[in-house]
Amino acid sequence: MRIRTMRFALLGVMTAGVVLTQQACANGTAVEPVSAPAASEAATTEAEPAATGSEAPESPDPDEGAVPACKTGDLEANITLQPDGKGDTRMGLVTLTNKSDTECGVHGHATIALKNPADEVVNVPTENVKEPGESIRTALKSGSSVYQGIKWTVCDKGDSTCGAGNTLVFSLDGGKDGKPAKLSNFPAPEKNDITMKSLKIGTIQPDRQGVVAW
Question: 3-class DSSP state for residue 117?
Fold first, then answer.
């Protein structure tokens, strides 16, 4: 009796399923079996897109491979007094030459300062100017040179606002107590006759054209 009862119960469940299916069809609802996605479809969905060789490489660092900055000790300076001074204005051509064995970079302004016979820096109002234009960053090979112009106002040594000295020094780090420059066409050092009421310093350029024409 128990076995027959279980058979009737199972038959009832199967009959109910058939009835529900027939009702869904009668109502116009399509009944489709739900199947798991194929293994290949699942892999396509979950996989990350692969990188291709057509992607643009990262831009290199603009400073990559740049030469180290020149130091004051790497260079020598020669300052040549220009012959066409007008009134109380004087111009000088500063030639900076790399005397080291390695290439180095220069840019901006080299500081120029006046010193007296006691090797003291003379207080001269000084201004950096963008003449003859913006400085051009230059990689300076051993033995090669760059240029800048300086312009100053001469004065009477008896004037308390007049700076007087016998040598000029240069520096690349902004300091005034720099390295002595070689002077051309200036008064002899013993005369202490370099006078400056004010000084303007132009920009470093890769060639001398225009550096003393302002």
Answer: coil
d(CA 212, CA 90): 10
In a domain, residue 94? The reply is yes
* Rounded distance between C-alpha atoms, residue 113 and residue 175, angstroms: 9
Identify residue 209 by its one-letter amino acid code.
Q
Helix (H, G, I), strand (E, B) or coil at 99: coil
Measure the CA angle with vertex 197, ends 193 and 201; round to 5°: 100
CATH number at residue 86: 2.60.40
Locate 147 and state its tokens: 């240029």
In a domain, 43, yes or no: no
Tell me how far apart the alpha carbons of residues 121 and 111 are, in angstroms, rounded to a whole number. Answer: 12
Length of the chain measured in residues: 214
Structural domain for 107, as ranges: 72-201
CA-based nearest residue to 169, from 110, 106, 85: 110
Residue 46 neighbours by CB under 8 Å, 6+ apart:
none
Lowest mean pLDDT among 24-28, 147-151, 186-190: 24-28
Rounded Cα distance between 67 and 207, Å, is: 19
Give domain status of residue 99, yes or no: yes
pLDDT tens for residues 115-133? 999 999 999 999 999 999 9
**How would residue 65 be classed by pLDDT, with cut points 50, 70 and 90?**
low
Tokens 């990262």 belong to 58
